[in-house]
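Below is our example:
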Amino acid sequence: MSFKKNKKRKKSSRYHGRNMGTCGKGARKKAKGSGHRGGKGMAGTGKRGDQKKSLVLKLYGHGYFGKQGITSKGTERDKRDRINVGEIQEKYKPGELNLSSYKILGDGEIKNKFIITAQSASKSAIEKVEKAGGKIIVEEIKEMKTPLVEYNRKKEKPKVEDKKKEEGEVKKEKGKEKVEEKGKKEEKIVEKE
């Protein structure tokens, strides 16, 4: 008679729903006052996970929390493939190459003569290829510009000093008008006499 070898499950999973009430801690009185032991690993690191912050920073550094970069759907992304001059030297045989979906970058060295058709190329890549006796034919140079996000900012309110100056000017003008009116009345009175 052969025995089937069973894998022994962890104690925490063996105690699930067994009406034990001790969760594998032995006597219940031993565990009283110690609270629950928290979750495993990265459990509890959500947006209210301040208690785990020190652990996460220790593991992943300060790049873990917060947002990085623009995530809007309308943002145009640069989807060109990229390849370095050094990689071209390793992967391809010298001669004519069609890399029309690639941007050629200038990292590495090139010794053989290549005539490359590419979507775009950096200045250093063009220099290196031409130095080796080759040529890069660029289809069309497109400048990828990330659009600036304009927020609907409220118009700046005029400063308090500017307001006071304006109010002062208005009062002065009103005062002049009153003086002019009084002068006219006096003239009318003089004419009647």
